[in-house]
């Protein structure tokens, strides 16, 4: 699930497409990465977490934990 959410976001940014996964799936992914990445067995596979405040979407906060900068890269809204 984490791969789909995080890399789905990556793909959406790279192709300038919308990405709106179900909120319940993003929440489960967020909870997973928030706990898992603090003690990741291979931390070099992840980028350093990026600070993200609570005004950002749950998806943006989730990818920030995984080392993406949602302020620098934006997923386009669905058309």
Brief summary:
This protein is mostly helical and 79 residues long. It has one domain. It contains three helices and no strands.
Helix content: 40-55%
Q: What would you call the structural class? A: mainly alpha
Low-confidence stretches: none
What's the end-to-end separation, in Å? 25 Å
CA-atom Rg in angstroms: 12 Å
Strand content: under 5%
Can you tell me the number of structural domains? 1
- Tally the helices: 3
Which whole number gives the mean pLDDT?
85
Q: Outline, from the CA principal axes? A: globular
What about the largest sheet?
none
List how many beta strands DSSP finds. Answer: 0
Order of helices and strands: HHH
Helices and strands in order, then pairings?
Layout (H helix, E strand, L loop, with lengths): L1 H14 L7 H14 L21 H8 L14
Q: Notable features of this structure?
A:
single chain, about 80 residues, mainly alpha, 3 helices, about 45% helix, globular
């Amino acid at each position: 699930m984490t791969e789909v959410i995080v890399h789905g976001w990556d793909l959406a940014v790279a192709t300038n497409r919308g990405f709106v996964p179900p909120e319940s799936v993003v929440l489960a992914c967020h909870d997973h990465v928030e706990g898992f990445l603090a003690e990741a067995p291979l931390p070099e596979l992840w980028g350093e977490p990026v600070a993200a405040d609570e005004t950002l979407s749950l998806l943006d906060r989730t990818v920030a934990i995984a080392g993406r900068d949602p302020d620098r890269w934006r997923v386009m809204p669905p058309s």
